[in-house]
Amino acid sequence: MPRHVAMTWARRLKRVFGVEIERCARCRGRLAIMASIEAPAVIARILAHVERTWPERYAAAPAVELQIVEFLHALGRQIRQPLLVIWDGLPAHRSVVVRDYLEALDGAIQIEQLPAYAPELNPTEYIRGYLKQHELDNYCAPDFGSLKHRARGRLRSMQRRPTLVRAFWAQAELSL
Q: What is the pTM of this model?
């Protein structure tokens, strides 16, 4: 019986989209993977756009589903090339609103879902855990604004530590 060999996300991106994500096209240096958190003001602007564009279809949709659609829309506008989005099993990810939006894009955004009940495969879970247990462990914020400022600063600091980022991917058993 043939042995099953798992394909890395980097290899899959290269095979499906012809996108090399491990090496810079100009200098051939190693590239890092980054995650994005959108600003609340941007999310509000995008939600307002969706409500203007598709008011009858999305009027009754839960806010989280609209936020997902707006995030995908903003991501597509910023990156402007085919995207592969890897996400967990949040029910809103599978909602009619999100599915309709993705189908309207004619494949511009491809979705891969992590297996159910497998947070250990999601590097974001390790980032969140490290932030809570190491970067913000004894921080007692006087208000939400202070907590938000401190968390963003610590996340930016984590971005500048490639060894740490690689460790999160290694823990998730994903190769860079």
A: 0.48
